[in-house]
């Protein structure tokens, strides 16, 4: 289905964003072909939108095509499940619980869709989505006629909050993921999922519109020895030893700092929250401030985990 001049703020967890000139809703693979064909004929840009939980939209109008990916199905095949990229992590987590599947407990309360999680290799509490991936099916839209590509896990080049799909941004659309399953105790799985949900509610500023952690944590092993000594008491496993960016931003004195309607959360400083009708540039200014202050204080460069669009 095609729509014109759609407010992206309505599809953003941040409640921020301007108009999309052309907006397609794709509920099955076949819906993608006319959307891609339209964009090619108009020689315009394409943006793939999932759950809107990891992207900062501009307030300016996007003179291109936004494809809202809503391919939703979960099909069990022996010891693997086939999942549409538009299935939410919450829906998938519930399916794992009901079928006594273990391995996704770390994602309890994680927002967004599975496609987005695979795109950015989402992770938390020592787990990552790559640990479950067997195969990813995508649609290459970068050249000629759209082409289906199937990749095994090793071909996806998963890295910390990254993948080949993120590297190929704008060239491919993730449509389906095959995940391996491992049996477990339903009650124990449910308890662990609820534990993670409760932790997020307690430690993250979920009372405000947000798009999750803004920056990637810092790989502890890549730091100079003097910095390893400085940060050894705050290191956590995620899934390898990292220095939490929240600690760096806090130590730079930025907790609670505001610009316009956006604020660096006092509750979790790696979250920038929309407290009062924030504009995209309000968030961008705080991102710039955090990067500058952390670089000045620690000589460490922060890298965004989110997509700035």
What does this entry look like structurally?
By secondary structure, this protein is α+β, with helices and mostly antiparallel strands. It folds into three domains: 2-69, Uridine Diphospho-n-acetylenolpyruvylglucosamine Reductase, domain 2; 74-189, Uridine Diphospho-n-acetylenolpyruvylglucosamine Reductase, domain 3 (2-Layer Sandwich); 207-308, Uridine Diphospho-n-acetylenolpyruvylglucosamine Reductase, domain 1, CATH 3.90.78. The protein has helices spanning 29-42, 89-98, 114-119, 164-167, 186-203, 225-231, 245-251, 280-298, and strands at 2-7, 19-26, 46-49, 55-56, 62-69, 74-77, 80-84, 101-102, 123-124, 127-128, 133-140, 147-152, 172-180, 182-183, 218-219, 236-237, 241-243, 258-259, 262-264, 272-274, 307-308. The strands form seven sheets. Strands 6-7-13-11-12 form a five-stranded antiparallel β-sheet. The two termini are 23 Å apart. The relative contact order is 0.13. The mean pLDDT is 96.
Percent in helix: 25-40%
Molecular shape? globular
CATH T-level fold name of the largest domain: Uridine Diphospho-n-acetylenolpyruvylglucosamine Reductase, domain 3
Order of helices and strands: EEHEEEEEHEHEEEEHEEHEHEEHEEEHE
Alpha carbon gyration radius? 20 Å
> What is the domain tally?
3
- In spatial order, strands of the major sheet run 6-7-13-11-12
Continuous helix count: 8
Strand share of the residues?
25-35%
Intertermini distance: 23 Å
Low-confidence stretches: none
Query: Major beta sheet, specifics?
Result: 5 strands, antiparallel
């Amino acid at each position: 289905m095609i729509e014109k001049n759609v407010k992206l703020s309505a599809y953003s967890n941040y409640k921020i964003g301007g108009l999309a000139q052309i907006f397609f809703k794709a509920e099955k693979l076949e819906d993608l072909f006319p959307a891609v064909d339209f964009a090619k004929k108009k020689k315009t840009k394409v943006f793939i939108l999932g759950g809107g939980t990891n992207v900062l939209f501009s307030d300016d109008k996007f003179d291109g095509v936004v494809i809202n990916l809503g391919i939703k199905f979960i099909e069990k095949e022996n010891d693997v499940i086939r999942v549409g990229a538009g299935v939410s992590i919450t829906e998938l987590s519930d399916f794992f619980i009901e079928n006594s599947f273990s391995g996704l407990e770390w994602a309890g309360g994680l927002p967004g869709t599975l496609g987005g999680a695979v795109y950015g290799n989402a992770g938390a509490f020592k787990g990552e989505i790559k640990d479950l991936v067997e195969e990813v099916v995508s649609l290459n839209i970068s050249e000629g006629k759209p082409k289906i590509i199937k990749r095994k896990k090793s071909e996806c080049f998963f890295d910390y909050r990254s993948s080949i799909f993120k590297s190929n941004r704008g060239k491919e659309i993730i449509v389906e993921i095959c995940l391996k399953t491992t049996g477990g105790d339903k009650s124990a799985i449910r308890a662990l999922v609820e534990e993670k949900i409760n932790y997020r509610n307690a430690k993250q500023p979920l009372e405000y519109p947000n798009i999750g952690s803004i920056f990637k944590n810092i790989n502890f092993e890549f730091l100079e020895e003097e910095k390893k000594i400085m940060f050894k008491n705050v290191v956590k496993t995620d899934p390898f030893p990292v220095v939490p960016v929240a600690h760096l931003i806090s130590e730079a004195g930025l907790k609670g700092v505001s610009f316009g309607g956006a604020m660096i959360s006092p509750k979790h400083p790696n979250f920038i929250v929309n407290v009062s009708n924030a504009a995209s540039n309000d968030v961008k200014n705080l991102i710039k401030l955090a990067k500058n202050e952390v670089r000045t204080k620690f000589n460490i460069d922060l890298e965004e985990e989110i997509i700035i669009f």
